[in-house]
Amino acid sequence: MTAQEICLCGLLLREHFGEVVEKVGTHLLRSGAQNLRTIVHETNLSVDLVKKCLCVLVQHGACSFTVGRKGPGSPTEYHACGERILRVLRYSRYIYTAKTLYGDTGELIIEELLQRGHVTMSSTVKTVADRLTQNMEEGQSLDYSEVSSTFSKLVETHFLQRCPPVGAAGTSGGAAPAEAPATPAAPAAAASTAPPTAESFPECYTLPQVTLTGRGKRQLVPEDGEDQRNAKRAKMTSESHGDEGIYWQVNFERFHQYFRDQAIISAVANKMDQTSSEIVRTILRMSEVTTSPTATCTKPLSTNEIFRSLPASYNIPRHILDQYLTLLVDDPMEFVGKAGESGGGMFVVNLHKALANLARATLESIVQERFGSRSARIFRLLLRKRHLEQKQVEDFAMIPAKEAKDMLYTLLSHNLVQLQEIPKTPDFAPSRTFYLYTVNQLPTARMLLQNCYKTVANLIERRLFETKENKRLLEKSQRIEAILASLQASGAEPEQLSEVEEMISAPEKQQLDVLRLHVNKLDSAENQVDETIFILESYISSTSAS
Amino acid sequence: MAGRGRRTMSFSVDSVGISRGETLPPAVQQPTPVFPVMEQKPLPLTGGEEAEYLTALKQDFRGAMRGLPCFIQPAAAHRDVERYSDKYHLSEKKDGLTDWIIGERSNLSISEQSNQNTHQRFPCRPTGGALPRQQTLHRLHMAGGRVTLEKKEEQESSEEEGEEKKKQKEEEAEAEEEYDEEEFEEETDYIMSYFDNGEDFGGDSDDNMDEAIY
Fold first, then answer.
1. Which of A51, A74, A171, B119 is exposed most, by the fewest CB atoms within 10 A?
2. CB contacts, 8 Å: B47 with chain A
3. Which parts of the sequence belong to the RNA polymerase III subunit RPC82-related helix-turn-helix domain (chain A) (predicted)?
């Protein structure tokens, strides 16, 4: 992992899990796989704290453990996964997607799973039902079966998956959960040579048989007498729902597939029109489950199938559909390709090409916004023509020589453009060498991705700084809000309320508003940079897979 | 490097665009400024409902994470004097390690499990006092008493080093299992407000001292 990535991971861990987890996590990221004793020794924390931190990290999938490198019998080693920690940036996007697809219930289920890492289905359903019941009116409550059905829909569409077992050989029933990692002499872990991925577990999308009947409960204001008796009674009854030990986690890859599809559809809509984007959306929807995440293109679909699956509102005749498909195939962006002639024409969506085009558009837009449209013209030229001499750049870009030279040197100093030397003679004499300017898309994308990580880290640091500066003011306003709330709950008069409100003066209120504005801006900026990070990361991983 | 005595640059070729005698930009003498002046102003953020909702979700999520047991804070600042009531105070964040550590019931034998049910956590004190190291009883979580190997490890380690204050409570009570912890904490006969040492009394409203408090 690069220094920027580790820095960003540390900040994310600090905000979401506390400083102790940050310390352990960044130490593991920097030094690779280590066993418990080494971590304790090098971080100068107590064994219990380190164990707790490792538990938290494993619970959230950010840390895995394997047999020690000296073979079975040596202490287990822990290995942090930086990529997984960086996903924390995208959590709000996942929750929002679940909301758009499955409503408030889906939103809360995903939020619950993201907050706790690995959860059983029954506890999720209960907590979500209770939370939804809280917000409903008096006397209404949500039945568990509604939440269960949303949960099963999420599992069917692969947005949720089961946590993989550890040590597939030594588990019973194929549904054993991951072990608590702080047990060094774990027999099951020793049996496996490598931790299995979630996908390799054959039952990762099967729902367990769960008996879950009931309705959501509202949290009551505690009254003394009756509650004690209820409490005692509740303590006695232990509820088990038949899914002990079956834990679920969010399937990030599936969400990423969905985001990628959305990006392609909106790109087509921007470049062409709404109908073409609907056609592409139909093709992608039909190939959702048949396409693997790393596939270069979707499975070929015939025009007949596409025609049948178009949404009912788009009542376009068959020949118009053919024309649209031809247009899409002929487009230089190459989002859609033709794979054959049977069935009226077989069409695929070229996923990797689409990602490459999206990444290229991102790079061009970055250069345009930082250096101006003429530098962007030079950049696009070099992307298209690969290698050009100085003179050729000036001619093709139609920019005067001096300015073209300046712009090229600026881009060169920022490492966006590289210089390639082609010697005519083996002694590389300058007068007898060609100097060609070139742009390599993949290394440039990697470099800009690291810039994005650094940007987000800077944004988080700034937000923490701003909050720290105004800590006293924030605490005061929180106290006043608490007083107001308690006064209102106990039915105070308006004079008392206004008196309390006046405790915070007008300039302080203004300062608070400015602070809130800044914090919101910084948060929103983080979300936006994360969108760029997603496109660049998807592009880079698509090139490494192929 | 050019030959001796000749003052030519290593490459002064037109192909890179530097012609003879042209003034080159001045050499850089110091690192670039920390906040350089930008020629192009950056674009404004995309606003809109979706962006605002995402921001709100993000902030809510951060706030919610602070209250969960997986947010680990090191031992809180010590009070000035150790008080007897500290032992019986509820911790703000309940360290429910057991509920969210994936239980390994199948590994424990039946006898171990029944043994575990009677063991409990003990809040081990910071150094500086005589620490009773035995383990007192602590009521277990009602959802089937999920005891893990992790807890067993912790018991052993707490015997070894009782240095930090690790009050191991169970996971926060689920809604249908609300009970007043006050009564059943630490097998005392007194309710928890008995041990309240009055430090929190009247601490909220500092400025409303003109109202008499009875």
1. A74
2. 524
3. 8-66
Architecture, CATH, for domain A354-439: Orthogonal Bundle (1.10)
List, for residues B107-119, the tens digit of each pLDDT value.
333 444 444 444 4
Check whether A266 has a pLDDT greater than 90: yes
The residue of B9, B49, B57 whose CB has the most chain A CBs within 10 angstroms, and thus the best one to mutate to test that interface, is: B57
The residue with greater pLDDT, A234 or A531, is A531
Decide if A80 contacts A25 (C-beta within 8 A). yes
Does residue A329 or residue B107 have the better pLDDT?
Answer: A329
Asked whether the domain spanning A255-349 has the same topology as the one spanning A3-80, the reply is yes
What CATH code is assigned to A3-80? 1.10.10.10
- Given A390, A486, A525, which is nearest B15 (Cβ)? A390
pLDDT at position A373 is 92
Structure tokens at B121: 């956590």
- Beta pairing class for A77-80 and A160-162: unpaired
Cβ contact (<8 Å) for B53 and A96? yes
* Residue of B19, B22, B58 to mutate, testing the A interface (most A Cβ within 10 Å of its Cβ): B58
User: Which pLDDT value is given to residue B77?
Assistant: 53
Q: Do B57 and A95 touch (CB under 8 A)?
A: yes
Q: How confident is the model at residue A134, as a pLDDT?
A: 84
Task: Looking at the complex, report in whole angstroms how far the Cα of residue A179 sits from the nearest Cα belonging to chain B.
Answer: 6
Judge contact between B166 and B137, C-beta under 8 A. Answer: no
Domain residue extents for chain A: 3-80, 255-349, 354-439, 444-490+504-545
Of residues A61, A99, A97, A103, the one with CA closest to residue A79:
A61
Q: How far is CA B156 from the centre of its chain?
A: 24
Please, which residues bridge with residue A248 across strands?
Answer: A119, A162
Cβ-proximal residues to A190 (8 Å cutoff; 6+ apart), any chain: A67, A72, A73, A167
Q: CB A405 to CB B17 under 8 A?
A: yes
pLDDT interval class at A216 (50, 70, 90):
low
Contacts of A219 in chain B (CB under 8 A): 175, 178
DSSP-based three-state secondary structure for A77 = strand
Mean pLDDT value across residues A284-299: 84
Is residue A214 left, alpha or beta, with left meaning phi > 0 and alpha meaning psi from -120 to 50?
left
Mean pLDDT computed over every residue of chain A? 84
Mutant choice from B46, B72, B154 vs A, greatest count of A C-beta within 10 A: B72
- 3-state DSSP call for residue A206? coil
Inter-chain CB proximity A180 and B150 less than 8 Å: yes
Reported as a pLDDT band with limits 50, 70 and 90, residue A211 is low
Tokens 């000296």 appear where? A70
- Do residues B210 and A499 touch, judged by C-beta distance below 8 A? no
What residues 110-169 of chain B have any CB closer than 8 A to a CB of chain A?
139, 142-145, 148-150, 153-154, 157-158, 161, 163-164, 166
Pick the residue with more confidence: A100 or B116?
A: A100
**Chain B residues lying within 8 Å of A390, measured CB to CB:** 15-17
* Pick among 1.20.140.10, 3.40.980.10, 3.40.50.1220, 1.10.10.10: CATH of A255-349: 1.10.10.10
Q: At residue B153, does pLDDT exceed 60?
A: no
